[in-house]
Amino acid sequence: KSANPQWREQFDFHYFSDRKDMLDIEVWRKDNKKHEELLGTCQVDITALPTKQTNCLELPLEKYPGSLLMLIAVAPCTGVSISDLCVCPLGDPSERQQISQRYCIKNSFRDIKDIGFLQVKVLKAVDLLAADFAGKSDPFCVLELGNDSLQTHTVYKNLNPEWNKVFTFPIKDIHDVLEVTVFDEDGDKPPDFLGKVAIPLLSV
């Protein structure tokens, strides 16, 4: 019930600087649980923004009245990584010892915001739902922690895909829940949902 909503949400996106990336933004209005209406769209050219500073942008919505006020900062990634299983971070015993020292009890108040990090090894999926007429799927896996999101590559024509990837997330809230969702890639169409699991960090 507002024409001037304030969300105050922060989202982290990870991209490689050699790509020309556009940030696509859509604003939707929700009447009830079933009906939604598009209120406008806008784009931000990430590569054109100055780095290592917070950019305050007022973005007019295309073809619709209204605008969005956003703060966007482009900065080098810290604490987030994607790697193959064979070069897994923390595989080195000396590195594990450094991490143990960094998060030991006597150092716990040195940096209050540095809660820790989560490392997830996504190995494989088994007996997935067949999403196409040939009895196969093109699955990929999306990991979400808070507003952080990372994903695997797609394994085509396979109901038992093996990804063997290692994902590392910085933890911002110990009460967050890791959500792991498997989708079927469907060309230019939105991906089909194949399944999901939620893991509270406090259960790890």
UniProtKB/TrEMBL annotation:
Residues 1-59, 93-204 form the C2 domain. GO terms for molecular function: calcium ion binding. It is a multi-pass membrane protein. Keywords: Calcium, Membrane, Metal-binding, Repeat, Transmembrane, Transmembrane helix. It is found in: Membrane. GO terms for cellular component: synaptic vesicle membrane. One of its GO terms (biological process) is regulation of neurotransmitter secretion. It comes from the Eukaryota. Belongs to the MCTP family. This is MCTP2 protein. The lineage of its organism: Eukaryota, Metazoa, Chordata, Craniata, Vertebrata. The gene is Mctp2.
